[in-house]
Structures are given as C-alpha cells and as structure tokens.
Amino acid sequence: MRIAASKRIVNRAQRISLIALIGAGALAVSGCSYINPQSTGQIYSPSDGVRSDMGSLELRNILIVSSGENKPGRIIGAVFNTSDSDIQLTISGPAGSQTKIAVKAHGDYYLTEKSDSSILSSVSAAPGAMEVLKLAQTGSTGPQTSELNVPVLDGTLKEYRQYVPTPSPESTSSPSSSSSPSSSATATSGS
C-alpha cells in the first residue's frame, strides 16, 4: 500500500508542476503585450500628409506639392471646424507667402480643389524635405497660433501630379497682374 500512496504523491506533484509550467508559459507569452505599446492605440496619419489639432480646427493630411525648391507650392489636405462659429485660418510659408481660408461652423474645407487658391508663392524646401508652416486662426475662441512641419512632395506620384502649381497665363503675361481669389478663400503674398 505504501507504494500506491507514493505513486499518487508523485503523480500529484508532477501535475502541479506541469500546471505551474503551463501557467508560467502563458504569462510569458501574454507578457509581451504588457511591456510593448500597442500600435492600434497610437494616433497617426495613415497618409503622406500630417495631422494637427488647433483648438476647434482639425487639420488632416496636410502637405505641400511643389515642383522644386523656391518654387510655388500648393497646400493640400482637409480642415474641419468643430465649433459653433466660423473660423478663418491663415497659413504662412517661409518667405512671407500666405493663404487664408474660411471654414464655416461645423463645416469642412478641402484644400484639394483645382480652383483652390491655397498656393504659397514660394516653398523653401525641396521635394522630399519638410517645410515649417505657421498657422493662425481667428474666430469665437480667440486668436491661436501654431507651427506645423509638413512634407513637400512633387508630381512624381501620380495622385499628386495634378496639384503641382503651374504659372497662370495672367501672371506670366504681365508683372503687375494679380490673381482673383475664390469667394471662399483668399490668397495673399507678402515679402
């Protein structure tokens, strides 16, 4: 009888150690997610552009399309206004060039329209580099300013080719001519 009792004790000890070993293995495998950040919990821009929140304004997929360094550049992306009042956003480039857009309350403004006047007269960064834009908003929340580091792309990618600014016939024919902005946006150039 003593032999049968000792076999039960050995089997019980083996089972307990096997359960402990399985528990330690499960803990080791699941522990990886405890010390590593989950990529699904991180906010990022799943596009070529960048994102920024500026009070009630949400800027998404913002980038510049230009044919080269010190050439005109078109800002493309989307701006969303989550407030109850209209907001004016001024985007200034490096050489004093700027564009102004008005975003209606709870509205959106897409900077991808061919007729949009969101063209900076000069972009100091070459395609493939980053450009710093100065942002200023005025509205019911009061004035706010910010800077945004955005990528500069050229027409190499097919989807951006149509946005590369080309000189307009008016600007090449007369040095004193000026372009007329659309009713929803105005563009100005300073020195």
Brief descriptors of the model:
single chain; 191 residues; alpha+beta; Immunoglobulin-like; 10-stranded mixed sheet; 4 helices; disordered C terminus
Estimate the global geometry from the Cα principal axes.
Answer: elongated
Q: How do the helices and strands follow one another from N- to C-terminus?
A: HHEEEEEEEEEHHE
Strand content: 35-45%
CATH class (first level) name of one domain? Mainly Beta
Average of the residue pLDDT scores: 77
Low-pLDDT ranges: 171-191
Euclidean distance between termini CA atoms? 103 Å
Derived structural class: alpha+beta
Enter the CATH topology name of one domain.
Answer: Immunoglobulin-like
Largest sheet: 10 strands, mixed
Q: How many distinct helices? A: 4
CATH architecture of one domain: Sandwich
Number of strands: 10
Helix content percent band: 10-25%
Return Rg in Å. 29 Å
